[in-house]
Amino acid sequence: MARPRTPIGTFGDIEFTALANGVVRARVRVRDLDGRLRRVEARGTTRKAAEHRLKERLSRRADYATGTGELTPDASFGRLVDLWLEDLDLEGKLAPSTRALYERNMRQLVMPAFEHYTLREISVAKVDRFIKALATTRSYSMAKQARTVLSLALGLAVRYDALRENPVRDTARLRKPPTRAMALTLDQVDAIRAAVRGWRREPGMPGPPPDGQLDQIIEVMLGTSARIGEVLAIRKCDVDVTVSPTTVRLSGTIVSPTGKPTHRQPHPKTAKSARTVAVPSFTAEVLRQRLAAIADEDPEHLIFFSRNHTPLTTNNVRRRLRAILDEAGIPGVAPHSFRRTVATVIDRAGGADLAAEMLGHTSSQITKEHYIEPDEKVNPVTAEILESLAPRDSSTDEK
């Protein structure tokens, strides 16, 4: 025969019941995130102990509550990463190259540090130490990229209610080491042109001679300020040689997604990056040559292309340029060096706002900080102004 269970009162919404052997049961009805009411209970030797255990259970239940049931505070960090990547794909807002970069940074930079932790074990202190160590042992840039993807993933954990707050938010701010944008001088540009133009063109060199496209790509980068991917994505229909000066529409970029063929993406890095630029005569001449080479092709045909008429990859162009210039004793030059050179030249003549417009930046501050070489020369008009401080002729003063 079951022993009687006598109600002994309630405490707010909590109901207490005396059970056999002096045990007290505390229970309460709670509404879960699915809208349903469920009963939660706990037991103790006293009313106070039962209430304390019930509140602990309710607290843990709040920790475990999720909108989808897929993530809890005790889930592994690896599980979060898998869900985060799936979420990125569901949103579909990232360019394939950016999506690939996020996954690479997560797996190579972040996962080795956090893969053995559960979500509840990832604290502000752990994240802060990780980011600082990465900035010290690797680079500021890697630390910044790791911080970005870690914050995005943990932000998803917050949205799933697996974490109460994002630990990345309260970490110390990353301090960027001082850097200085360096533009190429005219002598350096000419030396680069000569090195590329003369590469493997000596008599008796084995194999087919270069097709001359790298020389022309450099002239287009110098005349448009475009990124290397934007230059390689220029099509026949993007060039207008019927106007003066010749114009080029920059409206795409070349991408090489992992596991997929290299192709032209129909938009550049940002919406602001889509622009039509007028080009100088030396760039216009190169473009006329390229148009003549593809006169029989359709308007969508790329200006620069491989021997099979497929897109050139940005990595191959970078490697070829680096190999040629290293051989010529001109290290440290990358395609972006030409972009900084254009920004600096335009800034000197027309100001940072015009340079930002040319480069397709949303703000001239970005152009100033990362692309324009600082001008240490003060306007010489100051010498004329300061003539007013010259010593006065003492004989004139006596008169």
**If you average the pLDDT, what whole number results?**
87
Q: How many runs of DSSP E, i.e. beta strands? A: 9
Distance between the termini: 131 Å
Number of helices: 15
| Radius of gyration of CA atoms, rounded to a whole number | 33 Å
- The arrangement of helices and strands along the chain is EEEEHHHHHHHHEEEEEHHHHHHH
CATH architecture name of the largest domain: Orthogonal Bundle
Helical residue percent? 40-55%
CATH class of the largest domain: Mainly Alpha
Main sheet: strands, sense, barrel = 4 strands, antiparallel
List the strand order in the largest sheet: 1-2-3-4
CATH-derived topology of the largest domain: hpI Integrase, Chain A
Instruction: Name the poorly predicted regions.
Output: 6-12
Supply the CATH superfamily name of the largest domain. Answer: Intergrase catalytic core
Protein name: Site-specific recombinase XerD
Keywords: DNA integration, DNA recombination, DNA-binding
Region (Disordered): 252-275
Domain Core-binding (CB): 75-158
